[in-house]
Queue: 2 jobs
Job 1
Amino acid sequence: MIKKTKPKKIREVSVDKILSAAQDEFILQGYKGATVQAIADSAGMPKANVLYYFKNKENIYHAVLEQTLNMWDEGIGDILLEDGPKLAIEKFVKAKVIMSFTNPKASKIYAMEIIQGAQHLQEFTRSYLHQWVQSKAEIFQCWIDKGQMQPIDPVSLIFLIWSSTQHYADFDNQILTIKNQTDYTENDITQVTDFLTNFILRGCGLK
Amino acid sequence: MIKKTKPKKIREVSVDKILSAAQDEFILQGYKGATVQAIADSAGMPKANVLYYFKNKENIYHAVLEQTLNMWDEGIGDILLEDGPKLAIEKFVKAKVIMSFTNPKASKIYAMEIIQGAQHLQEFTRSYLHQWVQSKAEIFQCWIDKGQMQPIDPVSLIFLIWSSTQHYADFDNQILTIKNQTDYTENDITQVTDFLTNFILRGCGLK
DNA sequence: GTCTATATGCTGATAGAC
DNA sequence: GTCTATCAGCATATAGAC
């Protein structure tokens, strides 16, 4: 029993190390620029071992992408009709801000993929994401019809919340440079959460 | 005289064709993924000609980046103290939206560069951009002190306007897919301008 | 200025010993 | 599972004829 679980652990640990190293390399160098050798070096193992676990570079990238989408899915925070517009927006903005600050790498991988034409995740955007936006837009429309919030375009609102929160992940380099900081602080997270929550609530006529 | 200007024209036209083709390739394939051969094919000339005009690939990329930053600079739209907060924000948002829709490629090149750590434009962000944000934040602070707008963090406001407008350029693929469109229409530009202008003005307590 | 041919180096991927 | 050695292919960049 012990002998049977041990090799499983080795695989898990190795795979995790490779995926983490690969994420860094793909962000910094792009898909083509990231070399299997660099990923192996960063993961602390020979190149052949990396290819033993993943067979080829494209498989590594797909695994990184899959991990990123799962994280996006978990961290998105749901928009629930019964919460009402104020609480729902507060929850949603907070969830997105926290994800941007705690996992900027996932956001960056996703952003690069979309900017470059979403060549590796056509099905995801084309079906799942479309459906997600549509269903959430209906909830916002419901609140608008009941006079619970300003009559604004719900889809545009979702785009604004996505963009304004993800900005702190994708453009962290630029933001830190402009603010003369080397890293984000705990204070930054609460300050940004407060600013965006209040600003967006006012924009929706909820404050 | 005629003979002297003709070779100049050839150079200009060729350089423009190369830069345009290179921009497309760098966006779709990344720096390393874009090949000089592909750029040459897209520009409709032999590879050796491309290298005749630019010497090497890095020079091509730098030229694309320089062109992008010049465009950013021209299209940014200024924030003037004498305009007052309402008009200034209206002008600024409109200028950014129009730039995002008319020149998404420039925004994408810039976004990729920042996400990947701004390895090729350190000086720009580190001095010019910092200064720009600081000077505009002072103007907003001035209006806030005079009670002309809600007391919010000006730097966060600038980030929100940047992100929410650039989103339509950088993530155009995702947005078009979600909206089930193949291209942006004239109507999209006015709709987005109206939405963002009104939303942001309300967020600033100006409506 | 234009284009062909080629040198040089690096990368992905595999074979096979341990 | 781990690692060394190696191959085949491709990309940058240059040389040199036209």
Job 2
Amino acid sequence: MLSGDIIRGYCDTMILFTLLHEDSYGYAISKSIRETTGGQYSMKETTLYSAIARLERNGCIAAYDGKTSFGRPRTYYTLTDSGRALYREKRDEWAVTRDVIGLFMEGDET
Amino acid sequence: MLSGDIIRGYCDTMILFTLLHEDSYGYAISKSIRETTGGQYSMKETTLYSAIARLERNGCIAAYDGKTSFGRPRTYYTLTDSGRALYREKRDEWAVTRDVIGLFMEGDET
DNA sequence: AATATTACTACATCTGACGTAGTTTGTCAA
DNA sequence: TTGACAAACTACGTCAGATGTAGTAATATT
């Protein structure tokens, strides 16, 4: 199970990725991330919500009220253009990061 | 130029990797890292030295005095067995991390 | 002795990921 | 109508790693 600093800097990207496909809300985003990673990574609630707040503050996602069948109404989020742009940046940055860190790995020529 | 949080968690590994090949000291380790990445990443001095201190505290590297031709004498570092073990752990962890984060990247099928 | 150069040290700050705990808003059973 | 209950957050504090700014230490050269 991965956690913390290892993933640091990519929590936001995971959320953006999830919203790339369809609008969603907190709990569902978290579930989607868990599923995407096949259970290898599970984002903590606080991490998720603070990342969402940050993304909204930065204008990368926008909120709107949704319905629910039970319990408190959900807040849905949708990607903005700048959110989409940020995703692309992060994706490109990742390609570089991955290769650079890979230079320090031996016996790992996958 | 990569920096900070992107690389976070792998500074230690870069240092361990460098020492895998031969004993070295602060400035030279930093230089070696810059060269390994082809100038794509340059570790800040403070980052380097605090990582070195951490690794030594944890028994992953051991220090000994070295000579110098000019200026203050260097402190050389050598990998310990547990440092070598930590490197292997980090290397394996990286393989997983890389694949998991990769799941969130589109149009990036390199 | 003054200076230049290499090699660090000290210390404060910032940020992002968490832990623990509590709150809000709705449905439903009785 | 009210109280249990569940979903969906919110508040707040902590911690570690990377970094900025600045200063110190040791040694050879002039």
